[in-house]
From TrEMBL:
<dbReference type="InterPro" id="IPR000315">
    <property type="entry name" value="Znf_B-box"/>
</dbReference>
<comment type="similarity">
    <text>Belongs to the TRIM/RBCC family.</text>
</comment>
<dbReference type="InterPro" id="IPR027370">
    <property type="entry name" value="Znf-RING_euk"/>
</dbReference>
<keyword id="KW-0862">Zinc</keyword>
<keyword id="KW-0963">Cytoplasm</keyword>
<dbReference type="InterPro" id="IPR013783">
    <property type="entry name" value="Ig-like_fold"/>
</dbReference>
<feature type="domain" description="COS">
    <location>
        <begin position="335"/>
        <end position="392"/>
    </location>
</feature>
<dbReference type="InterPro" id="IPR047065">
    <property type="entry name" value="TRIM36_Bbox2_Zfn"/>
</dbReference>
<keyword id="KW-0833">Ubl conjugation pathway</keyword>
<dbReference type="InterPro" id="IPR003961">
    <property type="entry name" value="FN3_dom"/>
</dbReference>
<dbReference type="GO" id="GO:0001669">
    <property type="term" value="C:acrosomal vesicle"/>
</dbReference>
<dbReference type="GO" id="GO:0005874">
    <property type="term" value="C:microtubule"/>
</dbReference>
<dbReference type="Pfam" id="PF00041">
    <property type="entry name" value="fn3"/>
</dbReference>
<dbReference type="InterPro" id="IPR013320">
    <property type="entry name" value="ConA-like_dom_sf"/>
</dbReference>
<feature type="domain" description="B30.2/SPRY">
    <location>
        <begin position="475"/>
        <end position="700"/>
    </location>
</feature>
<dbReference type="GO" id="GO:0004842">
    <property type="term" value="F:ubiquitin-protein transferase activity"/>
</dbReference>
<dbReference type="InterPro" id="IPR035727">
    <property type="entry name" value="SPRY/PRY_TRIM36"/>
</dbReference>
Amino acid sequence: VTIKNIERELVCPACKELFTHPLILPCQHSICHKCVKELLLSLDDGLNDVGSDTSNQSSPRLRLASPSMDRIDRISRPGWKRNSLTPRTTSFPCPGCEHDVDLGERGISGLFRNFTLETIVERYRQAARAATAIMCDLCKPPPQESTKSCMDCSASYCNECFKIYHPWGTVKAQHEYVGPTTNFRPKILMCPEHETERINMYCELCRRPVCHLCKLGGSHANHRVTTMSSAYKTLKEKLSKDIDYLIGKESQVKSQISELNLLMKETECNGERAKEEAVTHFEKLFEVLEERKSSVLKAIDTSKKLRLDKFQSQVEEYQGLLENSGLVGYAQEVLKETDQSCFVQTAKQLHLRIQKATESLKSFRPAAQTSFEDFVVNTSKQTELLGELSFFSSGLDVPEISEEQSRVYNSALITWHHPEKGKADSYVLEYRKLDREEEMVPWRELQVCGTSKVVTDLEDNCSYAFRVRAYRGSVCSPCSRELVLHTPPAPVFSFLFDEKCGYNNEHLLLNLKRDRVESRAGFNILLAAERIQVGCYTTLDYIIGDVGITKGKHFWALRVEPYSYLVKVGVASSDKLQEWLRSPRDTASPRYEQDSGHDSGSEDASFDSSQPFTLVTIGMKKVFIPKSPTSSNEPENRVLPMPASIGVCLDCDKGQVSFYDMDRMRCLYERPVDCSHTMYPAFALMGSGGIQLEEPITAKYLDYAEAV
């Protein structure tokens, strides 16, 4: 195989150009370094997660920069900010396989550079520009054409310059040199996690090279590894055997290509025939509709003509009562008769006619109805049936979307089940926004190979309908029952618990990911309570998020463990946190007055007053709604069942915080809050309890195919 015949293997799936500094993704596909960065930055822009380049207080997100208690004081001062050119998002869909991949905490820096692919690309480029010579880098003008390149010096030389700069008998004479090239790669592959360590092992579980520190105490500590030489020998033997097999099957491949060409022609003919049959069926439907249309319109015309005839007869009858009509004129002439006997003889019959006309005036009723309500065509059932019109399923069962496993947060995760007897080859997930103003929003389609999919392009505070249908070959099943989900009212705000600022490690326990905290009611609390002789009080242990907010609208969610005794969740400003977290540890909670005997927090404060903090109490599987002058303050109306997940929405621009039931995306409580300072997600625990931050929906919810 010549180097020019492998061009399509050397093209990046993202930019559709030859690879430039390719990186190996976790799904084993390669992509240009700049393409990865552009993809992540574009996702950052879409999620409003890119930090500001300026260093003023208008920045919507601020990282706490110091582990000391004074770190909050320095938040409002000019200081370090996240570089807007550094992506925050670490997950994106692979352009090669379309499965989502998660780069982890290290992001791009944790990926290996594909030097082998880079070398092959350089060979291809050299073959493509064979007429263009590579000039010597050390010659005086004019430079001579180079004859070799030194991989240690990363430079190209002509024969004379190479002898001058690599004299015989010196260390440089031992340098590795190759033909003229512009691709200088390092001789030793270094570990991306431990930059000073060279790669010398191969992890069989993760299928990637590692160093000895990765095996000793890193992420590959419990994985099975082998030596690099053993992995090199094994993989090279497998690859060589596969290549020999393909070369030996060349004639078979050619016959299969001929067979595929015949199948393509047959498919084209069958497709045209299927289109003709479909057109025939639809034309029959059109004929039935036209026939019914003609029948309905004829019935309406007949009824209209009959009613108009009745109205015309009634109009003519009433016209006879007008002053210039014959009956009235005749009656007026009869009144001129002076002979009594003659008048009585004539007036008797005339009076009966006049009396009948008078009675018809007193009881006026139209001769027909103007409404055609009985002729309104009801097509709702037929429209629904036509909407489900599809190919004959041939026994392919309808998939069912799982309401328990499907959810929406920063994105939507849709999961469905399909019976084994009707196993499908692929699925099509359809979704659309439910908008009351627009009558019909078109469905969007996503091709899916598995039974779950993450949908990312959803608008905030909108309802979406999802449905799925299965495909087996060219046959598809009817659509599943629709599932309606409501997106959060604002973009999802990402943060972790801060383990340094005010964190009490004697009472609180953080997990390694810093997205879960537990309160341990142990001997420390009992020893503290032993000193109390009068009254009883317990401290609240506070913990905050590691990211601050100064503007914009943000949303985050959390789960409170059912066994929790007392948990408070909400927001607090940086100056209020200084007051709370600097209070002595041997006193009561900074929000609890020891002598007053009642909670002095925001729950009992005036609803209309804007404070720099708001916390809602949760515990014993209940949510306690704070008092409000606009609603009933009876205890039974202020105590609600605890939702499985609770959402918090902070609108700094409006100065308002809201609390949501995530299952129904329903607002439980909202109140004004003073956002003049930097605001932080705040939490407090007392007694036994636990808080789990809602995990953003990312690539790890989908399993991508393992590399062979």
